Amino acid sequence: MATRKQIREAVKSRISSAFTAVYSSWRSQVDPRDFPCAMVYFEGGQPEGVHGNYETEALITIEIWEQDASSLDDALDLLGNQTKALIEQDDTLAGVIDGMVLNNFDYDRDPDSFAGALTLTFNVTYHDED
Question: 122, 102 in Cβ contact below 8 A?
Answer without folding.
Answer: yes
